[in-house]
Amino acid sequence: MSESVDLYEFELPSELIASRPLTERDASRMLVLHRDSGAIEHRMFADFPSYVQSDDRVVLNDSKVFKARIYSDDQKVELLFLEEIEPHRWQCMVRPGRKMREGATCQIAGVSARVVSICPTGERIIELDGALDFEQIGHMPVPPYFNRADDQEDESRYQTVYAGPIGSVAAPTAGLHFTPEVLARIPHSFLTLHVGIGTFQPVKVKNISEHVMHSERFTISKTAATEINSAQRVIAVGTTSTRVLESQPAGPLRAVSGSTDIFIYPPYSFRRVNGLLTNFHLPKSTLIMLVSAMAGRENVLHAYREAVRERYRFFSYGDCMLIV
């Protein structure tokens, strides 16, 4: 198969990009794609439990988004805090870059932030001379395609109802549809992958095999490993859960903490994941490539065209697709 990034392009009317969530989390539409036949069903997310059998295991990412976007006291610099690599030293994305060259400083809530170095990919290593209260001064890092600032609604809705360990700078959005009531109806397990900079990085190379994924931290508990090992079929919720599971070595799944930079694209043979619930993704993104690896590029692009015709809502606050 050709590995050209252009194979993952599709036309998306801008009005189908959802910038606000539905009133009810579980009221989204759900396009069901049968991976073997390419057949499509148009259902509602409320129907999801009917596709889950008692010996299945639905695997969700319980990472919690923190208020990672912060502005300097003079409002001239925007920083997205990605990861604390050691105490008071963070990897950040900054705008505008020209104001934050090596050695430059800015003030954040009275704390001095100094650029220690600049990464090859443009992020800054920022050293702080004190602690920041992210919950108090930060903003939810909503995606740029919302074309709006975050607000109070995002504090609850750009977060899954089961979010636990703090560490993501983007929501594992396939999980946004779930309510406690839906979870109670399905056999499920949690793992943790802290969604990082890779979410924001477009594929800039023509040949996708040359794209380099950023590493993201994950944890699989002993309980989750045992539950997943006992399942006849594993349905991953989101590309993040999928990447964690597929990054593990052959054999029974084990409790582990580590990091992964796995990049899944066609052709790829899935070893652990049998089904996938996911939102509709950006053209030419690593996410649509992963989905195409599971269901076939032609099937996925056909499903996306069908979703456009049927006026599904796209991206983070949008509708979802179930691949079985």
Description:
This protein has 324 residues and is an alpha/beta fold. The protein has 2 domains: 238 residues, QueA-like (3-Layer(aba) Sandwich), CATH 3.40.1780.10; 69 residues, Thrombin, subunit H (Beta Barrel). The protein is 17% helix and 27% strand. The chain has 7 helices and 17 strands. The protein has a 9-stranded mixed β-sheet. A 6-stranded antiparallel β-sheet has the order 5-6-7-10-9-8, with no helix packed on it. The longest helix has 13 residues. The mean pLDDT is 96.
| Parts with pLDDT < 50 across at least 5 consecutive residues | none
What is the count of distinct domains? 2
Q: In what order do the strands lie side by side in the largest sheet?
A: 2-1-17-16-14-3-12-13-15
| Alpha-carbon Rg, integer | 20 Å
- Output the structural class: alpha/beta
The protein's oligomeric status is single chain
Strand content: 25-35%
**What sequence of helices (H) and strands (E) makes up the elements?**
EEEEEEEEEEHHEHEEHEHEEHHE
Tell me the distance between the termini.
23 Å
Shape: globular
Main beta sheet: 9 strands, mixed
Nearest-integer average pLDDT: 96
Given this structure, which CATH class of the largest domain is correct? Alpha Beta
The CATH superfamily of the largest domain turns out to be: QueA-like
* CATH topological fold name of the largest domain: QueA-like
Question: What's the helix count?
Answer: 7
How many extended strands?
Answer: 17
- Level-2 CATH architecture of the largest domain: 3-Layer(aba) Sandwich
Helix content: 10-25%
